[in-house]
Amino acid sequence: MKVIIIGATHAGTATIKSITKRYSDVEVDVYEKNDNVSFLSCGIALTVQGEVKNIEDLFYSSPEILKEVGANIHMNHEVTRVDTTNKTVDILNLVTNETVTENYDKLVASTGSWPVVPPIPGINDKRVVLSKNYTHAQELIRYANDDSIKRVVIIGGGYIGTELVEAFNVKGRAVTLIDNQPTVLNRYFDAEFTKNVANLFASHGIAVETGKTVQAFESTEEAIIIKTDDGDFSADLVVMSVGFRPTTQLFQDQLEMTKNGALIVNDYMQTSDPDVFAAGDSVAVHYNPTGENAYIPLATNAVRQGTLIGYNLISPTIKYMGTQSTSGLKLYDLNMASSGLTAAHAKELGLDADSLTMTDNFRPEFMSSTEPVLMTITWEKGTQRILGVQLQSKYDISQSANTVSVAIQNRMTLTDLAFVDMLFQPWFDRPFNYLNLLAQAALDQEEIKQ
User: 239 near 132, Cβ under 8 Å?
Assistant: First the structure.
């Protein structure tokens, strides 16, 4: 059997390792248009601010490693055409400019995503940069270490944007964050949480400009002017970070897709063509809180999906469990983590849901120190099925988001989370863990309303 894999970032690398681990008689040919594989873009901001000292450490694999496990790795090769009917791909060698056509038995689409670049006049100014891959990272690090760059504007207040805000601020730059949404981190956290982030940024001298839409960039020799519908801003550097789109043009009119172009897969990572598998940022995930497909480009999804392709290559074996979009973020000394839906997003989707927000200390007050945890839980009315939890504290609450992920995955209710067994030891916890207390408070609210 011959398997062709298009792309070797997170999903592609995981697929390669999973297939070669399980099948010694499968020929695996990998075509990657870049000269590197497996770059962890989540570490870009950490490198910009100096937490990660060597950008090369953000690679967790290499073409050499993937060759050693048994794959035929073709770097600087771009797949320019896919014919799923005849099972062929056209491949352009970017070094020699030669094109060849290859046949496959099974095809894996791990073509990833690319940053959204809005058609804003003036956006092609070289001082407007992206943050996605190794090349972008190198460019951002050069700018971060260039003393002539004094004013930085970040456009987009998601995870990447807010992390870069902190990174350039730590490097001593004057930073402005612009977002067209009413709050930063709008999709990930409700207003009580995002207000704290905005206040945190302000305390570090960062200008947070939400509810503003960028309309144009105007270039001058001294600066680039960001013109919005509510004022202009000057910068030496602009970083665009307004989201990602799946890069699936190769499969247009051949495979089923969502409206934004994400490939639709079944429980075994097969597309509408059973001989074409897909994983990673090119794929719509099964989002468990709603039971619908959603576009959530996270490395955690990519590595799980890629690994499953190896299990399911010959026959359906292990189902994809779906995702809760569990994620975490650290800004200065503030830890944030979430799993599932926010209350605002549940309302936007028209779900019959309710929510509760509370604050409690993570361990007893008789200890020499403790920290408050801000928490929100969202649940489905009637069934009381948990839809999402958000957490914020100076205390490291990240693993609690993983606990909530398991709860949502298994369709647990408020009662389940309220009384599930968790350890008690005063160094770590109360007799009831703060997640227990959060769910119990939600149950009390339900009881009062009844």
Answer: no
Question: CA–CA separation, 199 vs 338, rounded Å?
Answer: 20
By three-state DSSP, how is residue 230 classified?
A: coil
Give CA–CA dist 150/163, Å, rounded: 18
User: Which residue in 10, 74, 77, 345 is the catalytic one?
Assistant: 10
How many Å apart are CA 446 and CA 450, to the nearest integer? Answer: 6
CA diameter of the chain: 72
42 tagged catalytic: yes
Three-class SS state of 410: coil
Residue 216, sorted as left (phi over 0), alpha (psi -120 to 50) or beta, turns out to be beta
For the four alpha carbons of 267, 270, 271 and 272, in that order, the dihedral sign comes to negative
Angle (CA) 379 440 193, round 5°: 60
Residue recorded with tokens 């200065």? 332
* SS3 of residue 385 by DSSP: strand
Q: Dig out the tokens for 188 from the structure.
A: 């990930």
The residue among 434, 429, 390 whose CA lies nearest residue 408 is: 390
- Judged by DSSP in three states, 380 sits in strand
Question: Can you list the alpha helix ranges (DSSP code H) found in 326-371?
Answer: 343-348
Residue 23: other Cβ atoms inside 10 A: 16
* Kind of pairing between the strands at 27-32 and 2-6: parallel
- Close Cβ partners of 64 (under 8 Å, ≥ 6 residues apart): none
- pTM for the whole thing? 0.94
pLDDT (tens digit, 9 = 90+) per residue, 111-127?
999 999 999 999 999 99
pLDDT one-digit tens code per residue, 195-236 = 999 999 999 999 999 999 999 999 999 999 999 999 999 999
